[in-house]
Amino acid sequence: MKYPDIILKRGKEESLDRFHPWVFSGAIAKAEQAVEEGDLVRVVASDGRVIGVGHAQVGSIAVRMLSFADEAIDADFYSRRLAEALRMRQALGLASGDSAFRLVHGEGDFLPGLVVDVYGRTAVMQAHSPGMHFAREVIAQALVNLPGADIENVYYKSETTLPYKANLDATNAYLIGSFQTDVAVENGLKFHVDWLKGQKTGFFIDQRDNRSLVEKYSTGRSVLNMFCYTGGFSVYAMRGGARLVRSVDSSAKAISLTRANMDLNFPGDERHEAIADDAFRYLDQIGQGEYDLIILDPPAFAKHRDALRNALRGYQRLNARAIERVAPGGIVFTFSCSQAVSREQFRLAVFSAAAQTGRRVRILHQLTQPADHPVNIYHPEGEYLKGLVLYVE
Questions:
Q1: How far apart are CA 116 and CA 83, in angstroms?
Q2: Is 337 a known active-site residue?
């Protein structure tokens, strides 16, 4: 099948020749014929050379490249890409039993606009582009047919991730199968995953390795987990031998989920308490030195560059309060999941916070997203999770 051609302006193919997967609207000279949002198109250089095939969409990113070859984007294409993604997860030792892992991480797995998280036998699929929305049925079938994946159910959850101007009227629903269980396993710990109504796909798989690091530092410590959501860090801290753990979130529903996850793993353990409160207010109220391990994992303060200045002020303010109040010899885990905030900007905000307190602070670890959230080397924008582990004297 021949797809409509998108012709680039002269010289605008350079980034694509370096395999960057986005074509920006300003790089396009013309379209061979009328192109609808979500259509498959061929991208052609000004000299007539075919660069590859991608999904068209309205906006500054006009095409997301699926292949740097002139090939058909069909069921066989998606099956091959999914098999490649699964092989990498199997090599990492992640794709087994009831484990939770990310199978597809957009550009990082050469499927821009698509995210697939696997919770046991259920795959939760999110489309971030109209093209992936239109391909959802084909992708869902490829998921359940994927050898070695043992996927039986595919839940589509894209109501909040698709461009709102596209008017796609996406409905969250099972494309294949139905609800079986909401319990998934991560490093031997059990978690309820609310993919029906929860944030993202229901669980923040991207913090798995960082949760394990919290576990190692928790022995004998009093732990404060701010913005706890479903209590992932708290559960790991409990297994790590924390003396006490406090989980704080402004959402009463998040606190309910945290308590449910604690009951799954440590029923009746009185070391843990979950508290519904505003993070800044709670940090203002705690005593100096009350906690000697504080975790700061807030939601994205900046979802776009226009909010960057306020986001950096928010990170500085939040980290200053934690650094100021943590006990001498305490540890602070601090994160940013804002793609608009660079690693350098986040580190500068934390540096400014530390300087504001006047305490001596050292960086023990610089953290990022785990291996099942890979960064395409030609698409550095895919690195979004930043974290620092601080030792505060």
A1: 13
A2: yes
